[in-house]
Amino acid sequence: MSQKSTKRRAFLRNTAALTAATIVPYHFTASRAIAQSKNSRLQYALIGVGGNGTRTCPVPAKVVDVVALCDVDANHLRDGNQLLTDGKADTHDDYREVLQRKDIDVVQISTPDHWHAKILIEAMLAGKDAYCEKPLTLTIDEGKLVRKVQQKTGRVVQVGTQQRSSFDKFNKALAIIAAGRLGKLKRIVVGIDSGGWSPEVPVAEVPDGLDWNAWLGPGPDMPFRYLRNPKRDPGKGYTNGHTQFRWWYEHSGGKLTDWGAHHVDIAMLGIAAAGQSNAPVSVDGTAKHNTEFRDGVPVQTDRYNTAMQFDLHVAFAGSDVDMNIRHDVDNGILFEGELGRLFVNRGKLVGKPVEGLAANPLADDAIAQVYGGGPMIGNDREAHWVNFLHAIEHRILPRSDVHSHMKMLNVCHLAGICCRLGRKINWDQTTESVVGDELAASMMKRPYREGFEIEM
């Protein structure tokens, strides 16, 4: 057995105490795991240091060794290295250098959305387990390829939809539904807020330290744009780059794959918990954009172009439940059933079925059953990482595996196609294909820029 394999096995043995516990304060169990496995922890690299990278890395930093950071912005790389490791990690500006390193076991991918699938696929092929931020892909066809490679390589991939690991709100809501307290579900309202708006954003000089060509990567070639927003801090104005990339279809799916990747996810888990079909068959509705569209393509190229407002309805096979995705209601998910309704978001879980728990509590293991029997330590993002480590230890699918994530994310992608074309999109879940609409079907994939194709 190689030295690396020995270290890996030692780490997994030593983190058993961490992953086998039930509802114990995270800081205590993490500290114990670190003390027990000081020289045997997994070697971790963060690819995409800005934004979500630095926000989510401190959790794994408690239980893995952060040995490398990668970013195409030298400023992010410098600041992130100082913040996360006191400047001790190796730094790279090319993710391929990270994937080639034999000493790295786990990578976290926190790049803009258009880079996710390419880096993830190549990471799995390089033998790395991966934690990848949502949304997992930019297109439906990318999801098919990600799933194929995951099955081929057997790598453990956790998607960063940490709401799946919320025990006190989202999983409790799912447990209430699974216990039949709402009865048969009839309607679900998913509130994900409005998308971004901008005026005309002019072409501007690329900021010092940013490799714009590398940042664009597999996406289409386009000039860097920036306009100062007097309502925001300097450097955080209107742009097609950092922080605001998700308002451009070239890089993202807008609010539908941003908050939608969280709340549509819980909504579809709720349908399954009620014992009803969550296999989508169509998406229909209306949307408003910041620009005119022609055949699904924005006519103007100098402003945000993802959907700002939307009122969409998703239908499911063999079920009369209607899922309504809206911008103009409270952020969260409203479940309405024959016996009552509840509302859940990151701040609250309310409704008569929730109030009824005082007199008629759920079974002791109800939430654990919904969660899938994995370790229940901490909550939300912390628990999500512990679940990921547990899945690595046992070589099993984590809580947010790529297969169930893509079934949900395909709904978000179809919603985006519906918004761009302004018409109903029909879907065959068995073949995972758009039905009866050649143009819509062509939007299931996008070409990669030359030199940035996925390396298989």
Automatic annotation (TrEMBL):
EC number: 1.1.1.18
Gfo/Idh/MocA-like oxidoreductase N-terminal domain: residues covered: 43-160
Gene3D superfamilies: Dihydrodipicolinate Reductase, domain 2, NAD(P)-binding Rossmann-like Domain
Taxonomy, superkingdom: Bacteria
Residue ranges that the Swiss-Prot or TrEMBL entry lists as coiled coil: none
Alphabetically ordered keywords of this record: Oxidoreductase
One family name in Pfam for this protein: GFO_IDH_MocA_C2
Ranges where the Gfo/Idh/MocA-like oxidoreductase bacterial type C-terminal domain occurs: 201-290
GO molecular function: inositol 2-dehydrogenase (NAD+) activity; nucleotide binding
Leading EC class: oxidoreductase
Alphabetical list of InterPro entries matching this protein: Gfo/Idh/MocA-like_OxRdtase_N, Gfo/Idh/MocA_oxidrdct_glycsds, Gfo/Idh/MocA_OxRdtase_bact_C, NAD(P)-bd_dom_sf, TAT_signal
Name under which the protein is recorded: Inositol 2-dehydrogenase
Originating organism: Stieleria marina
High-level lineage: Bacteria, Pseudomonadati, Planctomycetota, Planctomycetia, Pirellulales
Gene: iolG_3
